[in-house]
Design brief:
The structure is a homodimer of 221-residue chains. Chain A is mainly α and 221 residues long. The first copy, chain A, contains nine helices and five strands; from the N terminus they run H-E-H-H-E-E-H-H-H-H-H-H-E-E. In chain A, the strands form two sheets. In chain A, strands 1-3-2 form a three-stranded antiparallel sheet. A two-stranded antiparallel sheet of chain A has the order 4-5. The first copy, chain A, binds a DNA duplex (30 and 30 nucleotides) through helix 3.
DNA sequence: CTGCGTGAAATTATAGATAATTTTGCGACT
DNA sequence: AGTCGCAAAATTATCTATAATTTCACGCAG
């Protein structure tokens, strides 16, 4: 498994990140180091290090002496992340384009198809993430890619929050347009479409715990 | 002092970050937790947490069981950071522009003048950072601003590495052009200039420890 | 009934101790 | 001379213990 070789702190932070992103742990709820330590059968020292990693990813916020809680988010942050992704993914694509091969584009098309067939948020999100990663990775800019990864994690949080259980399949035209532009060597057109695609924010009525309905927002690309 | 209220880990990470950025600690050198702990009169637990923070900022890299070392960097990373800054600062400026007041622009002009008068890298860097922060902060996007801050820290590292001791004063025309465009309400022109400004990479021969001269590169904006 | 101490319980932050791994120095062997 | 291997030293990662702070419940006064 992937965890081998990782330090305990890394293992814990990955598991907690997954829970926060998927919404298993609610925004605002406290993360108590002793409880987490007990669950993972460790002491609290590696747990604290895991908290620092989550903090850096923007998934948790820590107030000195008062503990760590899951970061909450609002429409403003959804927009913010969408715009940052647009800026950075467009940059990455411009650098990646010259290094894209037919094989990579074929894999990206497969990922798009897998997304269209997905019957739940989780598998759609994974396919979507695969698509973006495939076409951006060849830019060979590690720092940029890691920043984009963190933003994807944030995006996925918003996504899961809006489409908690239900999910309607739909075909992703943007991905196809991007691939087609890339195949024709039209980098600028691909970049422009990607920029728009990532900034599109879906909107959908959702039942809250109190029974009311409110509009939920989520990045869709 | 600013450290009050901070946890020890934060204090240590700030101090180490400053040393790494200013070049007091060399790229590639090891950070040994017990040594640092002793210097700060603490145990190694907060030191480890400080290391995680440095890791997240890209100032240190940690290999499990093998310790932490100061991140090294090359021309590729200098370029990468410059391009990321260009993308994100332009985004921030577009959002900040509508909220800029005459008072803020006056302060930014002061910062520019202070930069022109600076007789060493350190004070120039501070003035420059102040300028950028002043015109970008009103965008009200905390995540974006914090990402830009981290990139500024990386930039400063490159800057200090190239101009370790000597420094020649020069007047910053770009800053003035940006301010003038903003005063006229011409956001797009200001953004375009900022984007170019930040990507400009200075180049300068420098003596290495072995006596040879090589070209050093550094972000200048 | 509401607001405000007060003290117990929970929790965080740090210190000190231990186990496991890596690095290093040195000597034997080729 | 070079290198291989082993043991000692250094270092990392984790655990256990302690001090300090915060939270929470409860009772009392206004």
């Amino acid at each position: 498994m992937a965890s081998t070789g990782d330090t305990i702190a890394v293992r814990i932070s990955k598991e907690l990140a997954d829970r926060i992103i998927s919404g298993v742990i609610e925004p605002g709820s406290r993360l108590r180091q002793d409880h987490v330590a007990e669950e993972f059968n460790t002491s609290h020292v590696p747990v604290r290090e895991a908290f620092r990693r989550l903090e850096a990813q923007g998934l948790a916020i820590s107030e000195p002496r008062r503990g760590v809680r899951v970061a909450s988010f609002d429409l403003g942050e959804v927009r913010e992340v969408a715009e940052m992704r647009a800026a950075l993914e467009v940059l990455a694509l411009r650098h990646a384009a010259p290094h894209l091969t037919a094989s990579i584009l074929d894999q990206a098309e497969e990922a798009t198809k897998a997304g269209d067939k997905s019957r739940n948020v989780r598998s759609w999100e994974e396919a979507n993430r695969t698509f973006h990663r495939l076409i951006l990775a060849p830019c060979n800019m590690p720092r940029l890619l890691s920043a984009i990864d963190d933003l994807h994690a944030a995006s996925a949080r918003f996504l899961f929050a809006a489409w908690r259980s239900e999910w309607e399949t739909r075909t992703d035209q943007d991905h196809r347009a991007i691939l087609s532009a890339l195949r024709q060597g039209n980098t600028e057109s691909a970049a422009a479409t990607l920029g728009r695609h990532v900034q599109w924010i879906g909107q959908k009525p959702v039942k809250t715990a109190s029974g009311k309905t409110r509009d939920a927002f989520a990045i869709v690309g």
